[in-house]
Amino acid sequence: MLPCSPSNFLSRILLATLWGYCTCQGIYAAEPESPNILFIFADDQSFETMAAYGNDEIETPNLDRLAARGTRFSHCYNMGSWSGAVCVASRTMLNSGRFLWQANAIYNESEAEREAGRWWPSHLRQAGYRTYMTGKWHCKANATKSFDVVADVRGGMPQQTPAGYNRPLADQPDPWSPSDPSFGGFWKGGTHWSEVVGNHATEFLATASKRSEPFFMYVAFNAPHDPRQSPQEYVDKYPAAEIAIPKNFLPIYPYCEEMGAGRSLRDEKLAPFPRTTHAVQVQRQEYYAIITHMDVQIGRILDALKASGKEDNTWIIFTADHGLAVGQHGLMGKQNLYDHSTRVPFIVIGPDVPANETIDTPIYLQDVMPTTLELAGTPRPAHVQFNSLLPILRGEGEGAYPAIYGAYLNRQRSIRTESAKLILYPQAGVARLYDMKADPLEQNDLAGNPDSLPLMRTLFAQLQDLQADYQDPLKLEETFPRLAP
Asked: Which segments constitute the Sulfatase N-terminal domain (predicted)?
């Protein structure tokens, strides 16, 4: 402290006056604390499989709790895949920030991408975050090098057994059980994988409560990917005979072979051909059961976050890598461009995010990456093509995607607007058109109606523009000459 001489007394008055002025002007105001980020990621979970999204059969109280606390996007999509393993494409896009075909181009270089600091956790680490990961990874980059802390790294899918395919058959005993740990699967190692994720995440939150730096948690469940195993008490919640058959159920999808989702595709071999109502009921029973079991683990994580004292300054984002058909349109997997397989739940909770609200603006699930970079105060890098959702959450603008692009191998292409969807099967030379307002389950193909041709041509032209923007190499004009300009 300065001695209390007259000159120093005046100096102290001047200093105090200057301090008060600077504080009022915000010059010495403390920097805002960086928010924590908790990213919860499901595998194969369609947007339809939550009570908050209108499903009155399934129990998802903790996911519904998130929806009540935050804002949900009703039209969130995955862009597609360059391989039958749709998970790989989705997660490479997610962590690189690149659109589908650009992500495909760097897929085999993703380790180099991480080393170059262009990987999602790398950006947040550079922003001062302690980065953490547990669960499913399924990217080429080494997770243990990509994150500061890695509790567990799971492969693309749990252990499979031959008994888990082509089932159940009519009037025959089911050779496989969703609740029997002897089949391995989600119990390989002794503890159900969803419970392992819950254990690791809650343990990290207990340590994070004692640290000062912000954290980024990448919590990735393998559930509800097949083999869809859960304890018997969860299976018992959904008696198969009481499960509703989807209104768009078909015994066989007419273009399944040409579109690349036929009898030889692993996902489609889970249930017998032709599909039966009983087989679909059993598959959906197990799908619902493992989602409800995962929901319980998510509840544990949310409780641990609250107990950590970090909840008020934590953004929580829940989504999935893509959806799943599970009997709709005669399909079982995700290798198609119907909404049940490309559209996922997406929920955001954070300071000042409106509670229990729904936004219909179309987005891609990979928009979560640049959203978190903006939260961290990091400018979006030039190679990141997806877009932050914060402007939409603030009510600014109408979103970055007037139409949603979809692609699967060289077998399928689609464009979806608010009111219509055009699906193309180049190997079959078939176009399908749906009125998404009047026919959201995509049951009534309008492509054969001559009056639909102008709309189809408009959508085709828009799709070609998106192909050019997204560097999609597939040429469609020769296959669909009547739609081309």
From this structure: 35-377
